[in-house]
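Deliverable D5.2: sample structural annotation.
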Amino acid sequence: MFILPSLFTHVVELYDQSMYVRAFQAAEQIAPLAEWEGTTARLLAGRIAATVGSPKLGQKLQLLAYRHDPLDWEARYYYARMVLRYRGPLDAWQFLQHYDRDQTLVSADPKIHSDWLAFHAFVLAQMRDFEGAEPWLARAEKVAPSNVWVWVERAKVFELQDRFEDALSVLRYALMLQPWLRPTIQTSAHALVQAGRDDEALRLLAQATQHVECAWLVEQMANLQIELGQHEAARHSLERFAVLSPRMEPGVLERLNAQRAEAAYLSGDHTAALAYAQQCQSPALRHFAAQLQRGPITGKRVVLPVGFVRQHHLTCAPATLATISRYYKMPAEHLRIAEEICTAGTSAYSERNWALKNGYAVREFRVTWENAQALLQRKIVFSLGTMEPGGGHLQAVIGYDELHGSLILRDPAERPYREVNAQSLVTQYRSCGPRGMALVPARYGEMLNSLPLTESDGYDHLYTVEAALAKHDRTKANATYQAMRQSAPDHRLTLQARLALATYDGDSAQLLACYDKLLEIYPDDINFKLNKAICLRTQGHRNQRLEYLKKICTGKQSHPLLWLEYARALSEDARQLPLALRWLRKAMRRGAVEAKSMHLLADLRWQQQRREEALALYRFAASLDDTDEQCALAFFVAAQQLKQTEAALDFLQNRVQRWGEKSGQPVQTLFQALEQLGKKKDAFAALATGLEKLPNDGRLKLFAAEMYARNGQPTQANDWLQAAQGQAQPNEWLRVAATLAQYRGDLNEALLHWLQLADAEPMA
């Protein structure tokens, strides 16, 4: 039914006031939402449907609006948001770029025009290109300064940068422009929670629910109430959610009943919990209902009072250590910890080493239900380290529930605690333990050490290996590994020690042998498969690598990261370029939108002579992983060829500012770029600044030694070589020493160092 805009003016007014139920009721008097036709009418009906419990209908109507009228800018805008949600930021960016060529945008309604511009910024922020996002936000604000949604988008960009106070400052201004607007309230409450200001968030949501009719705000409040232990209040909020969702779809009802069951159970109303759980279809809720039906509830539920520390990008380990430290009233600031122990991710060795240096007794162990109960009953919190395909995550285990058979986790990425089935967790992560690390103040170390924790001795030996390698004492590391090998040659931790040694040595043959052994024990582990493929690439076994990747990528136990590696292998043969692109796009559409995939796509586009597109992709790759030097340098080289050198140089200099006190690698990349431009004076000035900020970075000192030698300054080269001794791997030091001797023309000394390098202790 085609609905003229003049018929729903009053509906728009109600919607803009966030009176969604009344807007829905008024709209239904005109015609059922599903029957609304006409671009403007469908878009409005879709927005209303999404707010009253029918998000699927809302998306369907917005999709129909775009398909029937692709020239309409508002329809394009909502479709672009769907592309981002279902196909990821790269596809969304390409969709936006396609329509940016249409000059009719300037004649569109200023609100739609500014929404479109601000969405560019949000998409770029999803790829962590925050510098690129800023001009789009500035343009959006200039087009429509009073458009509240632009300020909400700016706040969301700030959140993605972990700048929650800046986000809140922007949102306060947005609330002044239009009080009680639902998106502003939702975003403000989320930012307050992430900033650790729960009470303020709860007050804001409670006040807002008196002024607006929005089910999602009430659900947000209910989730926070459950987290804060206000279970009866949460039950009231969930019933209010039902009232404010007059057109509730089955999926929304399923979620609501699951929340009702949880809130009722936590408040002690097991009868109501059973009734709600029985209405759910998920296996977990069915199991929960069966447990409740068995009779009186006797199982314990233990939840320790552990607060929340919000992680920043790639700082889950520091945030978890800070969370546990606060629990023990030995507070440590999580960003300070991050500066000490990580650049891009954190090793288990670094976590344990930090804890030992900061007054804790530590035990690492394999997590089991029995271990978890023994620790938590003694009020000992422990960290849980798990490995996902492509990376790891660290959380704190803060409790357990015997009825659910669940462990209760404090995830630094999200404010609400999570419950996971303990048996499923142990089974899923058996290839990495899962690893637990219990820590208590040192004065309670005897209590911790008295507990029989599974595989604790093995973890102690592995820590000894890693600690020795960190000090470049390979002899001690190998002796410890040999002892592990004698007692348990095929144990997972022994193989991890072997991997640590092979990685230190740069011995790809031993790495490959080790991953082959691990895959015999854990044949379905994606990370082991991926690392084996990388080892085959490193060793140059192209045919074997292709055969292996084809087999595992076409099998049942496959993964997008494996498809990405297969695409990389195929791309090395120009004849296979179309097939490589198919596998790459398949991987990216299944979630593998990361620096490596973006870099590979950029390489392929460059080969296809689509160089402007490739340059944007190189920048996205360098932004997605700010610690990947290969991506950063590739962006600079591409920009230089396309005569956009200054922008790329600014990008590299900004990286040095961000990482200059944590890693010397961005300094090395900037040096190479400046040297390519013939700016040697600037290059050495940047290097000197980096060396001053990182006095213990042996690798940076070796790099300095090589650069000074290459530029005819042997005295400075030798000074930095000597300064690096004991701070870098012996093999690296010998290689640079040999190279410097060659530069000086001292072939005997060079030969001596090369022979020492060849005779260096091999992998056992």
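Annotation notes: The first helix runs from residue 9 to 16. The mean pLDDT is 92.
The annotation will be released with the project's public dataset once the embargo ends.
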